[in-house]
């Protein structure tokens, strides 16, 4: 049902999964475009130092958002499983606990972050001429954390009840406000104060605040299962056992994002050894890969939401079809995108590098050798989407560490004497196929089905304080 709560345990799987994945894909694309637009505004109005400042600040913010996203994902799974059981009260208990947890994390991180901003930037090795701008930008972004935390929670739990459209609409509202207000606050256009780089953060704060309030209004206006009122407000004071469960699952999911980022940073360090032309080529190829991965990320998110409801409903018989159809969509959507970009890669790469750049040929080779690996990494994401839908987080983390560090980075290091710098690009398919094989083996083994997350939550809620 477009724009509303949907029962994901009934009806045809293929069409339901596709219609659920498309809004998530659109949201991912819009989010990336918004980041690009804001980067353009900062670069045009404030120059290279401001761009360097936001890049350094973004590294710190990403770590914090990993924790917020992980806990929101855990809440989405709990809400989805409760909805599959037709247990609306249980879904609301999960929302109340997650809201308290996320607000607590965001306020603590805000206070610590504002106090330690300059030290954190120094630890990152932020260039001295960019440090004051990065400090001002980051401090203002820390003020927006509580708004961002509740906004992410609302988006994820709405998907948990089967509503993928409402998060998309308010993503659009936030992006229009953020991108639209950026130049006015940065440059002081019209009645707006000239705030420089801080203005970009203020625009983000306003956009997140409006999106959060708008989503809350819709949730209460439509009386959706994630709203709390009356006696249900007591769910904002959950028992410590339920908080520990959501926090533990959330931190493990957030740690997976951290591992992914750490492996990417190590790879950048290896690429840097090849010189500036290769580094520039890799940077541009990486920009293309961000978009190549979006279909599989959207499909994996849809698979998680759909699988969670079916697990809650005891419909284990549908999980195999959900996963298999998700895998099919991944191969079709990602494969078509890779093929199209390969056909026109010289034109697309030229947009970033300039038509006569010597890095274009290098970037084309990187794309040719490595981009097809995202068919396998996408398949891994889809299978892990089903596994995570039951709250299983340790084995996915182990598989990610083995695939990224032992296989991808290990191959990149040890194959260089024979393949030279091509070893870096071949490392992507080697690591992706290893991760896919390990994930498939664990998925087929079935140990992740033993206990549902909602059963763990029920035990936690009845545990003594």
From TrEMBL:
Signal peptide: none annotated. The chain crosses the membrane at residues 12-30, 60-82, 94-116, 136-156, 168-189, 195-221, 258-285, 291-313, 325-344, 366-385, 392-411, 423-443. One of its GO terms (molecular function) is xenobiotic transmembrane transporter activity. InterPro entries: MATE_fam (IPR002528), MdtK-like (IPR048279), Membrane_Transporter-Flippase (IPR052031). It is found in: Cell inner membrane. It comes from the Bacteria. It is a multi-pass membrane protein. It holds the Pfam family MatE. One of its GO terms (cellular component) is plasma membrane. Keywords: Cell membrane, Membrane, Transmembrane, Transmembrane helix, Transport. This is MATE efflux family protein. It comes from Rhizorhabdus wittichii (strain DSM 6014 / CCUG 31198 / JCM 15750 / NBRC 105917 / EY 4224 / RW1) (Sphingomonas wittichii).
């Amino acid at each position: 049902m477009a724009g509303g709560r949907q029962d994901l345990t009934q009806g045809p799987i293929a069409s339901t999964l596709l219609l659920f994945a498309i809004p998530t894909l659109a949201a991912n694309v819009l989010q990336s475009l918004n980041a690009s637009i804001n980067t353009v505004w900062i670069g045009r109005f404030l120059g290279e130092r401001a761009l360097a400042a936001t890049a350094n600040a973004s590294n710190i913010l990403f770590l914090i958002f990993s924790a917020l996203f992980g806990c929101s994902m855990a809440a989405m799974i709990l809400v989805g499983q409760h909805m599959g059981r037709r247990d609306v009260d249980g879904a609301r208990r999960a929302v109340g606990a997650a809201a308290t947890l996320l607000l607590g994390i965001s306020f603590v991180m805000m206070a610590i972050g504002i106090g330690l901003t300059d030290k954190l930037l120094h630890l990152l090795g932020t260039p001295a001429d960019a440090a004051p701008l990065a400090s001002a930008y980051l401090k203002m972004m820390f003020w927006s954390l509580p708004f961002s935390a509740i906004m992410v929670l609302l988006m994820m739990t709405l998907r948990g009840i089967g509503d993928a459209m409402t998060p998309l609409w308010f993503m659009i509202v936030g992006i229009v406000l953020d991108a639209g207000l950026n130049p006015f606050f940065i440059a002081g256009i019209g009645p707006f104060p000239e705030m420089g780089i801080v203005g970009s953060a203020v625009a983000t704060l306003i956009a997140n605040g409006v999106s959060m309030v708008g989503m809350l209004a819709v949730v209460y206006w439509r009386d959706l299962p994630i709203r709390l009122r009356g006696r249900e407000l007591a769910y904002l004071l959950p028992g410590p056992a339920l908080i520990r469960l959501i926090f533990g699952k959330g931190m493990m999911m957030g740690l997976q994002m951290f591992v992914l980022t750490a492996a990417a940073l190590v790879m950048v360090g290896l690429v840097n050894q090849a010189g500036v032309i290769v580094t520039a080529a890799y940077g541009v190829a990486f920009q293309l890969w961000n978009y190549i991965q979006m279909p599989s990320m959207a499909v994996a998110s849809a698979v998680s939401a759909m699988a969670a409801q079916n697990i809650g409903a005891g419909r284990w018989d549908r999980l195999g079809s959900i996963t298999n159809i998700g895998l099919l969509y991944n191969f079709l959507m990602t494969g078509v995108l890779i093929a199209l970009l390969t056909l026109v890669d010289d034109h697309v790469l030229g947009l970033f590098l300039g038509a006569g750049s010597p890095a274009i040929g290098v970037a084309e080779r990187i794309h040719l050798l490595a981009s097809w690996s995202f068919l396998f990494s996408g398949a891994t994401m889809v299978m892990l989407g089903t596994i995570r839908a039951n709250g299983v987080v340790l084995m996915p983390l182990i598989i990610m560490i083995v695939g990224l560090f032992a296989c991808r980075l290990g191959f990149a290091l040890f194959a260089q004497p024979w393949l030279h710098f091509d070893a870096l690009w071949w490392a992507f398919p080697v690591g992706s196929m290893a991760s896919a094989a390990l994930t498939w083996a664990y998925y087929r083994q079935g140990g992740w089905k033993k206990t549902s997350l909602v059963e763990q939550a029920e035990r936690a809620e009845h545990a003594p304080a």
